[in-house]
TrEMBL record:
Protein's gene: glmS
Molecular function in Gene Ontology: carbohydrate derivative binding; glutamine-fructose-6-phosphate transaminase (isomerizing) activity
Broadest EC class assigned to this enzyme: transferase
Subcellular location(s) per record: Cytoplasm
Recorded catalytic activity of this chain's protein: D-fructose 6-phosphate + L-glutamine = D-glucosamine 6-phosphate + L-glutamate
Biological processes, Gene Ontology terms: carbohydrate metabolic process; fructose 6-phosphate metabolic process; protein N-linked glycosylation; UDP-N-acetylglucosamine metabolic process
Top-rank taxon, per record: Bacteria
Ranges of residues in domain SIS: 44-183, 217-362
Function, in words: Catalyzes the first step in hexosamine metabolism, converting fructose-6P into glucosamine-6P using glutamine as a nitrogen source.
Shown residues within the full chain: 246 to 617 of 617
Protein name, UniProt field: Glutamine--fructose-6-phosphate aminotransferase [isomerizing]
UniProt source species: Microbacterium barkeri
Keyword Cell wall biogenesis/degradation annotated: no
Secreted found in the keyword field: no
Signal sequence extent: none
Self-association and partners: Homodimer.
């Protein structure tokens, strides 16, 4: 009903507008005196002792949140992380035991493939922790521990606000585990917490200052038949998520690539007029990484690509090479994905709307896939 949409044209429009709160509410109550305190994990420190490996299991958008989480868990908790699609995990005799912590991510907590993978991991002796947006759902009930995301109910089939909340929860978990295991200084954790707490305001800045321009761009591009997304480091999973959202909502062929793979194949796709979104890492992430992505942009532009750069505010290096620049506020490098994905959500939603499609109920898709 229109009332439930709170005046928005779609649930998705409402849910994208709630991305700042999804992050804020997921952090809320989990920081005390500059320290991470996750009440649900009270007394469960044992879960993180003796763990030599983390396997993240999920499907769809939640899987891409997991790919982002890998960078944070490895950096802060210093535990090697594999991220795997839940339906692939089960059928290959995985090497899993008591030293493995399996972190599942599911908005609904009911995705059958994810549930069955978690059960299989538990049967093999792994410790299991569920990141979930739905109180009392099946996957958290089947897990040893739960960290809820507090994105609020998500109605639109394609996930948006739950995605930013999932990354936030993974970051809180990574910081918590890093501290519990003595892998992370209070100082580094404190700086990360400050970054997390600053995110909602920065997302709001994007919605207030860039949304209209991005929607205009999506209207101009409503006849586009194929869109490519390139990213590197934490920008890579965001490129994948941007492509997924565009196919789901607008039925346009879209594909995400690691920017470094360009020369190993995708560059063959570039022909005059081909739109390519490029997630530009902050120049502060290390001059090398930034310079490499700028040179990727030059390479595709020389072949006629139409470059839409998602870049940090004030990054002047990108201006001469991009047809469009979508700005995101400054954040420490690991936190950029939570900002950079917002323009991509707006773009996919805008393009589907421009094509007259139902953004809440894309054809052939279900909100929660409860069959294998
Ligand atoms: C479906 C939805 C996606 C979602 C995926 C995983 O495919 O359409 O938006 O990312 O399921 O759902 P989950 O509830 O496990 O996060």
């Amino acid at each position: 009903a229109a009332a439930d949409k709170g005046g928005w044209s779609s649930f998705m429009a409402k849910e994208v507008s709630e991305e700042p709160e999804a992050v804020a509410n997921t952090v809320l109550g989990r920081v005390q005196d500059g320290q991470i305190v996750i009440p649900e994990l009270d007394g469960l420190d044992g879960l993180f002792q003796g763990v030599s490996r983390v396997i993240v299991l999920a499907c769809g958008t939640a899987y891409y949140a997991g790919l982002v989480g890998k960078y944070a868990i490895e950096q802060w908790a210093r535990i090697p992380v594999d991220v795997e699609l839940a339906h692939e995990f089960r059928y290959r005799d995985p090497i899993v035991g008591p030293e493995t912590l399996v972190v599942s991510i599911s908005q609904s907590g009911e995705t059958m493939d994810t549930l069955m993978a978690v059960k299989e991991a538990a049967r093999l002796g792994a410790k299991t922790l569920s990141i979930c947006n739905t109180q009392g759902a099946t996957i958290p009930r089947e897990s040893d521990a739960i960290v809820y995301t507090h994105a609020g109910p998500e109605v639109a089939v394609a996930s948006t606000k739950a995605f930013v909340a999932q990354i936030t929860a993974l970051y809180l978990l990574a910081l918590h585990v890093g501290r519990v295991r003595g892998a992370l200084s209070a100082e580094v954790a404190g700086a990360a917490i400050a970054e997390l707490e600053a995110l909602p305001e920065k997302i709001r800045w994007i919605l207030e200052n860039e949304q209209e321009r991005i929607e205009q761009l999506s209207r101009w591009m409503s006849d586009t038949r194929s869109v490519l997304f390139l990213g590197r480091h934490v920008g890579y999973p965001i490129a994948l998520e941007g492509a997924l959202k565009l196919k789901e909502l607008s039925y346009i062929h879209a594909e995400g690539f690691a920017a470094g793979e360009l020369k190993h194949g995708p560059i063959a796709l570039i022909e005059p007029g081909q739109p390519v979104f490029v997630m530009v890492p902050s120049p502060r992430q290390g001059a090398t990484l930034h310079a490499k992505v700028i040179s990727n942009i030059e390479e595709i532009r020389a072949r006629g690509a139409r470059v839409i750069a998602v870049a940090e505010e004030g990054d002047a290096a990108v201006l001469p090479f991009a047809d469009e620049v979508l700005r995101v506020p400054l954040a420490a490098p690991l936190f950029e994905p939570i900002l950079a994905v917002v323009p991509l959500h707006i773009f996919a939603m805008g393009l589907a709307t421009a094509k007259g499609l139902d953004v809440d109920q894309p054809r052939n898709l279900a909100k929660s896939v409860t069959v294998e």
